[in-house]
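Aim 2 progress update. The chain analyzed this quarter is reproduced below.
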Amino acid sequence: MKKAFILLLIFSMIFAFSGCGGNDDADNGAENDTTTEGAIEEEESDENDAETTASIVDEEAAFKSAISSQGTWIICTLKDLEFDEDLVLEGNFTNGKKDDAGNDVVQRKIALYTQDEDRNVTDRFNLKVPKLTINSPMASIQHGTFVGDLYVSQDNFKLVDTKVDGNVYFTTESAQSTFDMDADSSITGKQELQSQ
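Predicted structure tokens:
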């Protein structure tokens, strides 16, 4: 019985990691991941970049750790998460890929979904936070619902197939002008420039 539980746990983790693959438009010029290893690949990093591993989270404490400056470039949720405190996505991260010039690709991704082997989204999750501040460059929220207000302080923030049930405030004109959302994303509230 114990062995069966361990095997089931290992299989669940392998499936979860495959759900975090790069099924997005936010790779910033790099090719999409096609394997589980692509999502959790580690690469040497300089003192400004953290390791490029993925975090699979199914509890609030793990999510808070993953979005910190000591966290990971991609944070994959496995269920709805709810917080009664304000949070900050912070730190500079690379995704383990190189651009055409051979430079590390900077990216941060909150993945509110799981997917199958063919990259079809299988489950979408809600992330409820009163206020989430985006302080990581080249960040995105993908394939789920964010409930609360977003404060965007970095350039090139993206929404990919994501509903924001709240407002999006930009703390700089540059953050506002470089913000992007695809046709499958929506914002129920305001989008405006506002200092924190």
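Residues 2-193 form one domain. Confidence is low (pLDDT under 50) at residues 2-19, 22-52. These observations will guide the mutagenesis experiments scheduled for the next reporting period.
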